[in-house]
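SUBJECT: A protein chain and its fold
Encoding: whole-number codes for local backbone shapes
RECORD BEGINS BELOW THIS LINE
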Amino acid sequence: MADHSLPTALNLPMQDPLPAHTQKYFDVCMEKLGMIPNVLKAYAFDTEKLDAFTGMYNNLMLAPSGLSKLEREMIAVVVSSINKCFYCLVAHGAAVRALSGDPALGEALVMNYRVADLDPRHRAMLDFATKMTQASATIEEPDRQALRDAGFSDADIWDIANVAGFFNMTNRVASATDMRPNAEYHAQAR
């Protein structure tokens, strides 16, 4: 049985002490979120890996984009649903609930996005992320054109592909290491 005092099933405790820049980042998380997400604690055994992870995450999920933060979180949840990633479904499902103000949307995306009341833009985006997750080698120009027809620019398509790709990677790491979500996520925005 896994020791859930660690964020994963691997015996990789955080560096102690943490470098000053990492401690500052964790302090900001505590201030803004009321917790340090376990994914950050998991990477903190090697701060170079943590910095690479957070740099990519922050760029894809928080930097300016033609995609809203909610749209990026929607992609994260749908990809994580296909991959059955417990950590990401709980953490990013909470983000969808909070950003949308709609707990039912968060639940639908976790279970089966096709039952959600989505506009054509979001349906096209999530259909593309699904195809990319299930069979990326089968994506062809008509798939990209469907996104353009739904109002996405080529830069938006790049962002959709990168967010979906990032979560396909992180889902696999989280599942392989039995990464557990912070308990606080379960009750958020319900």
The mean pLDDT is 94. The chain is about 65% helix and 0% strand.
